[in-house]
Each structure stands twice: as C-alpha cells, then as structure tokens.
Amino acid sequence: MKKLKPEEDAFGQEIWACYKGEEASEVVERDDGYFNASPDPRLYFLEYEEWDPIERKVMEFVKGRVLDIGCGAGRHSLYLQNKGFDVLGIEGSEESKITRKEKETTKWSIKDALDV
User: Fold this and answer.
1) Which residues contact 9 (CB under 8 A, 6 or more apart)?
2) Is the pLDDT at 12 greater than 80, yes or no?
3) How many domains does the chain have?
4) 43, part of any domain
5) Residue 48 lies in a domain
6) CA dihedral sign, ordered 76, 96, 3, 40
7) I want to staple 86 with a disulfide (CB 3.0 to 4.6 A). Which of 17, 65, 74, 90 is the partner?
8) By C-alpha distance, which of 102, 47, 109 is closest to 76?
C-alpha cells in the first residue's frame, strides 16, 4: 500500500477536522465515473446510545478477540475495548489514527485491509 501524504488522505482529513469541531466532508470521485459525498462525519464519533439500533444489537454477539477492519475513528473498537474485549483496529488512513490516539484506543495498525 502506498503511504498517502496528509493532503492526499481525504478521509483522514475529514475525520481529523470533524474531531477538532470543524465542518468537513469527503468527496469521492473514481475513474469509473462514480461520484459521491460522504455522509455527516460526526457519525464516526457518536456515543453508543446514538448508534443505529442494528449496530447496538450486533454488539450483543461479540465474543473473543476482535479485529475491526476499517476502524476509522475507532468508535466500535473503543466501545468494545471499554467492555473488556481484546481489540485490534486496522485502518488505511494515517491521519485518522490521531483521533484514535487521542481517544486512547490501545491497539491499532495502519495498513490496507488487503494486507491483513
């Protein structure tokens, strides 16, 4: 995986800006013509009580060690870690790691999910 420069990491910049209280969004435009704007990035920082009901329900079935691939800002990883689970978060965005570090997610790795 090619390491992105901070200014190339749109997702990481979006997450970091949102974490700092700034307004942010990410625009995705691919070579195949796909174009989309990200939803509100604040969803990456919601507290458990604010999660979608299906996300809360899924947490009831978690057992053993957890590998959170594409952990983003780490809200699922952090929640499970605080519940006593051994969690490893994997994220390709170098910039988004800052939010996990600030939020004290203990174990995470910057790598492409295809390299796991």
Assistant:
1) 93, 94, 95, 96
2) yes
3) 1
4) yes
5) yes
6) positive
7) 65
8) 47
Query: What band does 110 get if pLDDT is binned at 50, 70 and 90?
Result: low
Paired tokens of 55: 């996300």
The CA distance from 31 to 116, in Å, is 26
Residue 46 lies in a domain: yes
> Token pair 């979006």 is at which residue?
14
Counting residues of the chain whose pLDDT is more than 70, the rounded percentage is 78
Among 48, 47, 74, 77, which Cα is nearest to 62's? 77
Query: Among 26, 37, 11, 25, which Cα is nearest to 96's?
Result: 11
Domain assignment of residue 1, yes or no? no
- Tell me the CA distances in angstroms from 2 to 6, 54, 110, 111, 115, one per residue in order: 12, 34, 11, 10, 12
- The residue length of the chain stands at 116
Q: What's 44's domain CATH number?
A: 3.40.50.150
Tell me the residue ranges of DSSP E strands in 1-116. 27-29, 35-37, 66-69, 87-91, 108-110
Q: Could you give the CA distance from residue 19 to residue 77 in angstroms, rounded to a whole number?
A: 17
